[in-house]
Design brief:
Blueprint (H helix, E strand, L loop, with lengths): L1 H10 L19 E5 L6 H13 L9 E6 L10 H9 L7 H12 L3 E6 L6 H4 L5 H8 L1 E6 L11 E3 L5 H11 L9 H11 L1 H6 L3 H25 L4 H19 L10 H7 L1 H16 L7 H11 L15 E3 L15 E3 L2 H17 L4 H10 L6 H14 L2 H12 L8 H11 L11 H17 L3 H12 L8 H12 L1
Pfam families: NACHT
Protein name: NACHT domain-containing protein
Organism: Rotaria socialis
Amino acid sequence: MSSYIYEEIYRNSTAIDIKDIFDKCKDQRKQVLITGRAGIGKSIFCRYAAYQWAEGQLWPHYELVVLITLNSLTHLKYSLVDLMEKQYFPCENLSDSYKQYFKSLCDEGKVLWLLDGYDELPLNILHQPDSLLNTIYQTQHHILTSRPYAISLSYKTQVEIIGFTDANIAMYLNQSFEQPNENESESQNLLTYLKLNTKIWGIAHIPLHLELICCLWRDNKISMVEDALETQSLEVTMLYDKMVQSLCQQYLTEQKHTTICNLTRTSFREKCKKELEFFENVAFHAMKDFSAIIDPKVFDEVEKTIGWFISDYPQLFNIGILKSFNDKRIGSHVDVKKPHYFVYLSFQEFFAASYVVTGLRSGRPENSINFIKANKYDQRFRLLLSFVSGLLTIYNEEQPIQYFWDAILNAPLDLVGLRHFDLIISCLEETRGSPSIHRRKEMIDYIVMWIKISVNMKENTILDYIKQALQRSYILANEISIQKNTYSVDAT
């Protein structure tokens, strides 16, 4: 069923070359929205496009291509010149003549802006009507990337990055294991392993997930194979959890000089208890503020919460999870006065989810329950809540799981129901298909109900929404009652 889903995705999509991306733009001002799921390659696309332009391979009619990572915007007011200067000349003062020259290029339409990460913009900037983003949107040639749920701007030309094809995966593995000290057969061994496990093969089409799988294959191949043979499954949550364990293992060996031998997940977490507590608190505080940038004030708040000083643990910043904007290892000095960010936004969401799970497993779960109820339909927290579901499945403790699903399924509820439908699917996907999940039959019946409704409706928008949600789910693809109704959807 998983292979069928991916065949359907690619069959119904039209591939487009980067150089032709503006061909569908009918207006004089070229504007394209590029969407894609977490880890799908939106930032890589922007960097690749900028590099290709610099090499003379793309869009020669533009005098300049400016790549901006939107999560670095911290102030409400910028001019176009200010933004370029902040991103590329932070330590220099540009001459007035150069600033005027750049402004003239913008006015003449000779600058292309690559704006990466609309979904990572701080809310105070996102909701500012006269912000620089709106200026660029209204006056400049640009490409904007975002996760699909976050965009509120209207674009006539939209492109979706859908991830690797089967052939792309094989090519990536060949390149990933082509180092002289690595066995030439490793790429083929991993490819065979992925194809034998259809759930893992499914998530491997996301570039970031495939990168993490390759890292784990190198570091802990036997454990991964054993786990896969035992469960025939590797959910996204488990993938991130294993990656964190791998980073902890490397940290314990290099920073704490601890001998690692067959440590369990519980042992790793106990040995890195303070470190994980720190990352969970930092991630959650930043997520509450809808920020991908860790402001120095967050560290002050976290110190008050955890009850110890970050400066006493300088190795925290060298684990490979948090980075500062100067991209330098900090060594024995903890510079908490500089903004930081998680190496991937999805890592921030994973650690924030771990914070919520810690609350659900504690003797006082009220704060976590209230957070879930208040934010369950906010699309910015969808991946976080999926991670919560997956982590609770790993712990397999009945009461916290019940707290979570009751918060998801009870009031307040989405009035229309489609957001609720999508939420249930994304959270169920991380449960490994366990039949013992609290209120599972109720959720399956709800999904089947919406499938039947969509089949009988004349409005194609609803039907397309249901199809897309089901295509993202591999657990539900194997649910017999859903399979029967899915064939009805495909027949329409």
